[in-house]
Specification:
mainly beta; four-stranded antiparallel beta sheet; 1 helix
Length: 196
């Protein structure tokens, strides 16, 4: 094999591989959670969860920009970003960070939080007991509280709230969230009226 390559194409051992630099192995150290990407002008930033904290990287060079401080008491289960703010769900609390430093908390809710979603200036929080709570991103004021089981979003053959696995805000659906559960059912939640 070495005979097929010219001497000038072979590594001499003195070069430093940028591919193997520690900060470029984001997927090795990050937890398997959704990694929110923030676009600001021509720059893109990705936020990754690492145990009880998170890290923010510049997507162009994968340069580490921020590390959260202080660490959350429990592991992070969901992340969302809005401008300079990062929201990290840990247990029944949403920790609010600005440029990596904690500036406040939302909650606690009655149960552990499983999903976060930012739509416009609202942060939607889903807890495992089937509650969806909407907070104003800027003021942290609670604007919406919906019990999914109470509005008909239940598991098949049960009165308990469905276990959500995904949710999204389709751009063409004004004031609505599309919810998906572990059984494959889809539900539409009107966040203006609080009805499903």
């Amino acid at each position: 094999l070495h005979d097929a390559l010219p001497i000038s194409a072979m590594a001499t051992g003195n070069e430093r591989s940028r591919v193997l630099e520690a900060f470029r192995a984001v997927g090795v150290v990050a937890l398997p959670l959704k990694c929110p990407v923030l676009k600001r002008g021509v720059e893109n930033f990705v936020t990754t969860s690492v145990k009880n904290g998170f890290q923010v990287y510049d997507c162009k060079s994968l340069r580490l920009l921020f590390v959260s401080s202080p660490a959350t008491a429990r592991g992070i289960k969901a992340l969302e970003v809005h401008g300079d703010l990062t929201f990290a769900a840990s247990g029944a609390v949403v920790h609010r960070f600005k440029r990596g430093k904690q500036v406040g908390q939302l909650g606690p809710l009655a149960a552990n939080i499983s999903h976060l979603l930012v739509v416009g200036d609202m942060l939607f929080v889903h807890s495992i007991d089937g509650a969806v709570v909407g907070f104003d991103v800027k003021t942290s004021e609670e604007l919406l509280r919906v019990d999914l089981a109470g509005c008909g979003v239940t598991a098949k053959g049960s009165r308990a709230a469905a276990k959500l696995t995904a949710w999204v805000h389709p751009q063409s659906y004004l004031n609505k969230l599309l919810l998906g559960d572990e059984e494959g059912s889809l539900f539409i939640l009107n966040v203006r009226s609080g009805k499903c």
